[in-house]
């Protein structure tokens, strides 16, 4: 059976789109046919033998579009392997506490589907793109700034997914 995989993502500033793109490319290298789509553009999950869904974390939460996708397609997603990922700047400082905080953003989704794998990735924060109040807030919270995405780790995770079990 041909493996057709959906990689769906939410994003505000584009860094998670690039993470999703790297995941899609790695899965293609593994021989899968991949559709890469924004979460709010997905209308049907039935054609896929595996579904990967990811979102950045904002204020401790996955973006609504990603959670809505899981909610809308919960029934079908119960029939295929589903992998979830979260992108958060906190992982730039990769401690168990920070991992836990970013992983907690997946809780509402994990309540709806049981993922075969969970990926937690450091993100990218470009303070220049933000409004002054947001910049100040992130400064007060001592949030790291910069691009901490580890594309090798992201690709490794994608290649560990069970694309051949669909
Ligand atoms: C207002 C704001 C709140 C954020 N909150 C969190 C957070 O709670 N935890 C975290 O790990 N990263 C947080 N981040 C960092 C983003 O998750 C990170 O920059 C991510 O790569 C952005 O993805 P995007 O470019 O796809 O929107 C926050 C960023 C902003 C601007």
Automatic annotation (TrEMBL):
An example of a GO molecular function for this protein is:
menaquinone-dependent protoporphyrinogen oxidase activity
InterPro entries given for it?
Flavodoxin/NO_synth (IPR008254), Flavodoxin_dom (IPR026816), Flavoprotein-like_sf (IPR029039), Protoporphyrinogen_IX_DH (IPR052200)
Q: Which SUPFAM superfamilies match?
A: Flavoproteins
Q: Name one Pfam family in it.
A: Flavodoxin_5
Q: Where are the transmembrane segments?
A: none
Protein's GO biological process: heme biosynthetic process
PROSITE patterns hit by this protein: FLAVODOXIN_LIKE
Q: Where is the Flavodoxin-like domain?
A: 5-166
Q: Which organism is it from?
A: Methanofollis tationis
What this protein is called in its record is Flavodoxin domain-containing protein
What Gene3D superfamilies would the database entry show? Answer: 3.40.50.360
């Amino acid at each position: 059976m041909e493996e057709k995989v959906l990689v769906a993502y939410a994003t505000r500033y584009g860094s998670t789109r690039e993470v999703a793109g790297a995941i899609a490319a790695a899965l293609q290298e593994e021989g899968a046919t991949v559709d890469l789509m924004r979460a709010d553009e997905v209308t049907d999950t039935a054609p896929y033998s595996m579904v990967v869904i990811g979102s950045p974390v904002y204020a401790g939460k996955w973006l609504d579009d990603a959670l809505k996708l899981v909610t809308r397609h919960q029934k079908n997603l119960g029939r295929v392997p589903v992998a979830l990922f979260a992108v958060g700047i906190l992982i730039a400082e990769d401690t168990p506490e920070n991992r836990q905080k970013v992983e907690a953003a997946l809780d509402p989704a994990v309540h709806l589907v049981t993922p075969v794998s969970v990926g937690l990735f450091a993100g990218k924060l470009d303070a220049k793109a933000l409004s002054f109040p947001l910049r100040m807030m992130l400064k007060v919270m001592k949030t790291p700034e910069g691009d901490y995405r580890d594309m090798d780790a992201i690709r490794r995770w994608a290649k560990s997914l069970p694309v051949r079990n669909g």
